[in-house]
Give the backbone structure.
Amino acid sequence: MEKEIITFSHSGPSLIARISCEIDHHTAGRLRSRIDRELFSSRPQLLRIDFGEVRFMDSSGIALILGRVESAGAVGAKVHLEGLSPTLFKLVRLSGIERIKNLTVSP
């Protein structure tokens, strides 16, 4: 049986999305639709995206994050990125997306 690429849980006003795959152009579309579906159905105050099991991410991952900030904003939620490896944290920092309103980042 194939491992799920993403799982969801709730903690108070937060929706937690735990990604467990590499994020590239092959997986980004599936992740995008799964996160948006859960986001629009649960309408949390905060979308926490956990990258703890992500070992690789390219520019498709940055685009995925940017789009989820926009989707979260549509339901009045903020986005927090967590569990980033040192490499992914550096990629996010270099992209400059942590300066976007309603997005916070922690390693």
The first strand starts at residue 6 and ends at 11. The CA atoms of residues 10 and 16 lie 6 Å apart. The domain at 6-105 is CATH 3.30.750.24 (Transcription Regulator spoIIAA). Helices lie at 28-42, 59-74, 86-95.
